[in-house]
Amino acid sequence: MATKKTAKAASPSVADDDFSFFKKIKVGDRYADKLIRHPNFGYCDSGSYIFNALLSGDLFGGFPLNKIIMVAGKQQSGKSFIAKNNFAYGLMQKGYYIYWYDTEGETTEEELEEQNGFNPDQYRLIKEITTVEDYFISVNGVINDLEEDRGDSIEVKRKCAIVLDSQGELSTEKAINDATKGEIKSDMTKAKLLAGMYRSITNRCANLGIPMFITNHIYMDSSGAMYGNPEKIAGGEGAQFSASIILSLHKSYQKAGKDGEITGVILNATVTKSRMVKAKLKAPIYVDYNRGIDRYYGLQQIAENAGLIEKWNKDDYGDLPKPIDKATGKTTRKDCWVIKDPNKDPSEWRVFTEMGMYCKAGLGSILEPLNEYIKAEFKFRPPKLRRDDEELDLDESEVEAAEKDAEKDIKAELKYLEEAEKKMMQPDKDA
């Protein structure tokens, strides 16, 4: 006779628990508001569709309005240009007040207003801040003012943003004291101070809707490590932990006009860290010195991968006319591309030269389907559920190569952490 199985009582969930903290608190309570209704602050358009995608995983997104964004690069890689012309200026159009911390001594009010279009009533240029300690005190004061203004409400009454240009030029009181004494010493306090500062302000900025844009330096690691990226971002690991987005910029080449004058530059942007998109995503950004960032540049390769554009050939697209060359008045001999708009009949598809695609009628006509592809490829997706007995379709050589790469990365990381720990444990001679 079969034994009768007794049904197990379902374990109570948190929602069913009468003693749950989350059930006790009420809407309107200052803690309940933060836990239940964390505001969604949205995004600010960067001026470039591909840049928006790298920042947020959405062509129509951009700079998140309550996160820390760090852009790192070598000299003349466009960090300050983007901070002024895209981040700060874009936020001003949305009613934000900008606190601009200039630690490099290169920025003036005349430049910001005449060249970058800053409204004199919407920003403050702060040049007297030179140390991490002073910067922390100043930023903490800004946050305190907004918290007092907000009170227990989650409503944003005043909108502001912070730009630090640059973090790499911030000194410390110790370094200044050493220099005053004529002593040249390695300053191990800066990384600790930065880490402590960001731990204190990151969550507060997120709750208040204060976006922070930080420019930083990239330097070559001279430790001689065999593995890992030899390029390091200045400021230590603590500052990088707090940033939601870290992008590295590398100048590809400059573009010159007919007279040889440099008119712009191609920047290769790489996602070093992100809580919004996959790491190591790359895309080119074209910055025109007169017109700013090109809105459509960088979309070609992605559109081709998505199957939304294809190189023109006579066999497949002979019925679609190629554009007329304005100089000769004849059909162009340049390579051309077909914009395969899924919402149009193939007979209505248009043909553009490679540079001619960067417009509203070209790549701009397929932004919606392209954005769906971007979201699927750039953003994190939940893992697909599979049965325990289901085999994965993986190439053994690829698995082996991935395991070796992972092992190298782990060794490099462990070595770096060991060296960092040794430095941190060294006593401060001046203490």
SSE class: alpha/beta
Architecture of the largest domain in CATH? 3-Layer(aba) Sandwich
Q: What's the SSE pattern?
A: HHEHEEHEHEHEHHEEHEEEEHEHEEHH
CATH-derived topology of the largest domain: Rossmann fold
Distance between the termini: 81 Å
The CATH class designation of the largest domain is Alpha Beta
- The percent range for helix content is 25-40%
Mean pLDDT: 82
Number of domains: 2
Strand count: 15
Strand content: 15-25%
> Helix segment count?
13
CATH-defined superfamily of the largest domain:
P-loop containing nucleotide triphosphate hydrolases
The rough form would be described as: globular
Using only CA atoms, what is the Rg? Answer: 26 Å
Query: Regions with pLDDT < 50 over 5+ consecutive residues?
Result: 1-16
Specify the biggest β-sheet: 10 strands, mixed
Structure in words:
With 431 residues, the chain is of the alpha/beta class. It folds into 2 domains: 38-298, P-loop containing nucleotide triphosphate hydrolases (Rossmann fold, 3-Layer(aba) Sandwich), CATH 3.40.50.300; 303-378, no CATH class. It is built from 13 helices and 15 strands. The chain has helices at 21-24, 30-36, 49-56, 79-92, 109-115, 132-150, 173-180, 189-208, 237-242, 300-305, 314-317, 367-378, 396-425, and strands spanning 43-44, 63-64, 68-73, 97-102, 123-126, 160-165, 212-220, 231-233, 245-256, 262-274, 282-288, 292-293, 309-311, 336-339, 350-353. α6 runs parallel beside α8. The longest helix has 30 residues, at 396-425. It is globular and about 75 Å long. It starts with 20 loop residues before the first helix and ends in a 6-residue tail after the last helix.
